[in-house]
Amino acid sequence: MKKAVLLAALTATVLTPLVQAQSINNLRIMAPASPGGGWDQTSRALQSALQATGIAKPVQVFNVPGAGGTIGLAQLVNSKGDGNQLMTMGLVMVGAIITNGSKVDLTKVTPIARLTGEYEVLVVPANSPYKTMKDFTAAWKANPGLAIAGGSAGGTDHMLVGLLAKAAGVDPKKMNYVPFSGGGETLAAVLGNQVAGAVAGYGEFEAQVDAGKLRVLGISAGKRQPGIKAPTFKEQGLKVELANWRGIVAPPGISAADKAKLIGALDKLHASQEWQAMLKERGWTDLYMSGNKYSLFLKTEAARAKGILKEIGLAK
């Protein structure tokens, strides 16, 4: 009897931390943008999957829009030590920190995990004389002022065009990048032959590509992507690879236990059927990494973004 009681006590002692580690109570996720955008969608997908798996309950999403996410970043930094708060962010924020001269940057936060990403494509109208990247870059070298449309100045699209220009032998400072505030405007510009080409995530152009109205010249992935009939820029001689990734960070100054708890929760979520189904349903590319590997990635990505934006002329 005593042995049974002792065994039960030991079992309870061992299992209690494991049970506690399986569920996070009252988790808050900040989307540093307006409702409906990419960071908001990612935050709400995360909320849904965390609750469905029981990894965290309840989970609240709140929005702090403005300045490419840097207003939300500043608020997160002021939440020092809060181990129950996360923020969704990504490459767009990395660029905004640099171009906006933000007083806070990603060295002030606690990296948790990179979740997803989307590779970018360069498209031209179906009636364009440019059939391949070789055709396009030849014309670009002859005329650096060739107009290429994309999202906001300093964002992922702009960075990609800068990388392509450099790889093609075009001075990035002389390129003619035409920024638009939304994907609909970019799409209208390229369909209307107002620009020679346009850059965005493949999803922005997919319907028009399928309808034969646009042609994809290249994709910024390291290898060809399932479901996208397009060669990579790399295989066409342009050493360019870029993903519009989205990740998660926590406030500074959280305890080692809280950091481990949050990383463990996202590791578990990534392995779940619910999250994998979410990725498939939304067409998101799985770019998961966590912990120290993600911390190193953030440092190298920030340095790379600064280098690109300097060459474009948007950073000092």
From TrEMBL:
Q: Which Gene3D superfamilies match?
A: Bordetella uptake gene, domain 1, Periplasmic binding protein-like II
**Signal among the record's keywords?**
yes
The UniProt similarity line reads: Belongs to the UPF0065 (bug) family.
Highest taxon, organism lineage: Bacteria
For this entry, the protein name equals: Tripartite tricarboxylate transporter substrate binding protein
**One protein family per Pfam:** TctC
User: InterPro entries attached here?
Assistant: BUG (IPR005064), Bug_dom1 (IPR042100)
Tell me the first and last residues of the signal peptide: 1-21
Q: Which UniProt keywords apply?
A: Plasmid, Signal
